[in-house]
Amino acid sequence: MRTIIDLPEDQYEALKSLAKREQASRAEVVRRALAEYLARRAPEAQDDAFGLWRDRAEDGLACQEKLRQEWDR
Length: 73
What we know:
73 residues, mainly alpha, 4 helices, elongated, CopG family transcriptional regulator, CopG, Arc_rbn_hlx_hlx
């Protein structure tokens, strides 16, 4: 998929220089950078979910066992 982005001149020059050094296209350098950025941000979704059930009275293990009993039906 194609997309168009606007970069400040200094970022464009840095991108062009990095692409030349790595013998890769500018698009490839951007794809790699985005992949690294997304990989670093992914754990935050897990952090957002941590503790969601802390105010519930039901024990986590009891909940798991109850759900697993449904599989045996």
